[in-house]
Sequence to fold (214 residues):
Amino acid sequence: MSQEHQEHLEPDHEPWYKGPMKIIMGVFLLLLIVLWVFPHYGLKQNPEPQYTPTLEELQLNKLSIPEINSNNMNSYVQLTPEIKQIADKIVTLSCPQTHKVCNAKAIFYFIQKNFNYLNDPLAFEYYKTPQESLQSNSGDCDDASILLSSLLQSIGLQTRFVFVPRHVFVQVKIKEAVSSYKDQNDWINLDPTCNGCNFGEIHYSYSNSKKTYS
Fold:
């Protein structure tokens, strides 16, 4: 067969896997990679607890309740072996892999789920130790904040109290957390007595309130 005849029989277009189709396939594969990588990256940076235990599941024994006579809430934050063991149990049951963000979420959701709001006596302000709050399963915003701060500090996280008019909540400092959670300077708002507040949120009525820290 002559060369002229062969050239006449050869197709005058490129195969499907070349040209525009090659570009389309490349873009499609790139999109698949992005969709696979980013969710995994997001889960790694912002993991969620897989479970929130109940008080009954922690099998708490009778806790030793210290006697504290102070008007300073920080004096009631307890870092005892008992509180450390409780914090460790919560985190272990909630987070398959240890991560500061997941650990903090686990403890926050644990208190939010298991803690019942109950006012102090009308005559005076009463601060509960974390042991009292766990035994009674109740308290006001002061008591919930003391318990939350004690458990978070027991797993190595820095906390502070935030005071607004007629209310107090906690901030935890986690550099590794995603920016959407952070208020300022890596501090994250945690209000355990706000039923509608997620991790990193406070009630809108306190957003513009004057805040003091301790």
